[in-house]
Amino acid sequence: MWAAVAAYRQKCKGAAAWAAAAGVLYLAVLVITVSVNLPLNNELAALGDPAKAADHSLVDRFEGVWSTANIVRTVLTTAAVACLAQALRLYGRTGTAAVRQG
Prior knowledge:
Elements: H1 2-9, H2 13-47, H3 56-101
């Protein structure tokens, strides 16, 4: 988000928008991590060793939800990196022009 603010202040609004999008995507990743993955990890830790669990249906249920959430986090993080790359590309074009004029 700081990158978005810095780019906006330097009149690089295109780069600022892409940097802000990256920040929003990464914030979504953090929300999924805290609301889905961490509670599941804590519940699995409370069960003990999954190999010794008597009821494997609990482990199977956790695995499906955890894997899905992890895939979503991976896709969102990849999209955030792509947004940051685009922001850097635009900032480099605008920043170079601003340095030459200034």
